[in-house]
Amino acid sequence: MKINLLNAGKRYNREWIYRGVTLEFSSGSAYAITGPNGSGKSTLLQAVGGMLQLSEGSLQYATGNGPLANEDVYKEISFCAPYLDVIEEMTLLEFLHFHNQFKPFLESFTAKKISEEIGLEAAAGKQIRYYSSGMKQRVKLAQAIFSDTAIVLLDEPCSNLDSKGIHLYHSLIATYCKDRLVLVCSNDEVEYSFCNEVISITDFKNHTISSRRGIQ
Predict the structure, then answer these.
(1) Which residues make beta-bridge pairs with 23?
(2) What residue ranges do the domains of the chain occupy?
(3) Are strands 77-80 and 151-155 parallel, antiparallel or unpaired?
(4) What's the rounded Cα separation, in Å, for the pair 186 and 46?
């Protein structure tokens, strides 16, 4: 899977959030999008995920067989972000079964097995509204990482996680995302320390985006 942004820009009213963005992302690599608050990190990630339309430029997805049709793009993308809610009236198992109707799980995974992988098997039959904020974040990570998608988009993925949850996050990424295309939007290096490319959105009023390669 490849994603290509060509001279991409996003504007709200007369203010350009970013402009002139030309980047390529490929499967088997992890990328971080960093920058000050309000500089456009999440806006760029949401555009890549198809949640926002660009104001100018183009965004293309392609597999080894050629360009991916627009109607098929959503099948290849999973997304985790603090502003995306889970259905709190459902239990964890109910929510995962519901989500599975739209995005199939990775091969051999079931809702029960996923609940065990994220350490919530004891609470799997409890409504999510009774979960702590850290438990809810584990659910959000699970529905993104265990979906059988080529692209995993993560916006501030360690929000509300304690040290044990952060360790779990890194373990899930290392185990289940090494052959996928991963984009992490964050200001915290703990969340993107595994990325081999860091893209810093800076001075967006000057319409510049710079990238720093080779980060380990």
Answers:
(1) 5
(2) 2-213
(3) parallel
(4) 13
Q: What is the pLDDT of residues 133-143, one digit of tens each?
A: 999 999 999 99
More confident call, 14 vs 151: 151
2-213 belongs to which homologous superfamily?
P-loop containing nucleotide triphosphate hydrolases (3.40.50.300)
pLDDT at 210 over 80: no
> pLDDT digits over 93-106, tens only?
999 999 999 999 99
The structure's pTM equals 0.92
Which whole number is the average pLDDT over 19-47? 92
DSSP string, 87-135: -TTSBHHHHHHHHHTTSPBSTT--HHHHHHHTT-GGGTTSBGGGS-HHH
Pairwise CA distance, residues 181 & 183, whole Å: 7
Q: For residues 26 and 200, give the distance between their C-alpha atoms in angstroms, rounded to a whole number.
A: 18
Counting beta carbons within 10 angstroms of the beta carbon of residue 87, is it exposed (0 to 12), middle (13 to 18) or buried (19 or more)?
middle
Of the candidates 123, 176, 125, 171, the one whose C-alpha atom is nearest the C-alpha of residue 146 is 176
CA pair distance 119, 43, nearest whole angstrom? 31
